[in-house]
């Protein structure tokens, strides 16, 4: 018996509305929104339902993830969600030329630092001037203690892959700035996560 095509991430049901509350007002009135590392596809479907005026381009390097994304979009009948792209954030070449906003949720801590560098490089090259880069996830901050739950999560991530782990917010800011992405603000989110807001210079 084949597994169901649609995959589920329990955290998505908890964080999708808080994310949309922050993200929604920041998005452009029209245009193309690229989601990098779409995972199961649950976020992009939720966002596309809330903002049918935008075209949403999901992506993921995993074939299983792309199958799930396509299945979610098909099940919900969303004409404003494009077929998912095979996009590796760390790669030099991306299968998309330009976009008006970019979204990346829960990728930076479960990927090598090279993926963060690639994200900033790729978005910096292709994002429209003044366009939004929105990033969500857990981070360390130089000016604030890390929550015990995030310390435990960081240790667990590093036990799975030594290249993974919570990133310093200041390091992410510096990498973004080096590719013309200006840090505007962060918003504290439930479960010790942050929303990071960047704009293309």
Structure at a glance:
Helix content is 36%, strand content 24%.
Summary tags:
single chain, 201 residues, alpha/beta, 6-stranded mixed beta sheet, two-stranded parallel ribbon, 8 strands, 24% strand
Structural class: alpha/beta
Which spans of ≥5 residues are poorly predicted at pLDDT below 50?
Answer: none
What is the spatial order of strands in the main beta sheet? 2-1-3-4-8-7
How many strand units?
A: 8
- Give the overall average pLDDT: 96
H/E series, N to C? HEHEHEHEEHEHEE
Through-space gap between termini: 51 Å
Question: Could you characterize the architecture of this molecule?
Answer:
This protein is of the alpha/beta class and 201 residues long. It is 36% helix and 24% strand. It is built from six helices and eight strands. It has helices at residues 10-23, 42-50, 63-76, 113-126, 148-160, 169-177, and strands spanning 31-36, 54-57, 99-105, 127-137, 139-140, 167-168, 181-189, 193-200. It has a six-stranded mixed β-sheet, with helices on both faces. A two-stranded parallel ribbon has the order 5-6. Strand 7 (181-189) and strand 8 form a beta hairpin. Helix 1 runs parallel beside helix 2 (42-50). It is globular. The chain starts with 9 loop residues before the first helix and ends with a strand.
């Amino acid at each position: 018996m084949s597994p169901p095509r649609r995959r589920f991430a329990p955290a998505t049901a908890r964080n999708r509305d808080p994310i949309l509350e922050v993200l929604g007002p920041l998005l452009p009135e029209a245009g193309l929104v690229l989601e990098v590392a779409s995972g199961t596809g649950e976020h992009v479907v939720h966002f596309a339902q809330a903002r049918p005026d935008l075209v949403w381009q999901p992506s993921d390097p995993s074939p299983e993830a792309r199958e799930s994304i396509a299945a979610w979009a098909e099940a919900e009948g969303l004409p404003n969600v494009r077929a998912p792209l095979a996009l590796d954030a760390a790669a030099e070449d991306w299968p998309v030329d330009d976009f008006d906003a970019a979204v990346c949720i829960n990728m930076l801590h479960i990927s090598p630092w090279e993926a963060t560098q690639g994200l900033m490089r790729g978005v910096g090259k292709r994002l429209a001037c003044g366009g939004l880069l929105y990033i969500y996830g857990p981070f360390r901050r130089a000016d604030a203690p890390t929550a015990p739950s995030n310390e435990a999560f960081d240790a667990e991530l590093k036990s799975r892959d030594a290249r993974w782990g919570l990133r310093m917010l200041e390091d992410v800011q510096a990498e973004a700035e080096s590719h013309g992405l200006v840090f505007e603000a962060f918003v504290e989110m439930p479960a010790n996560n942050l929303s990071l807001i960047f704009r293309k210079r």
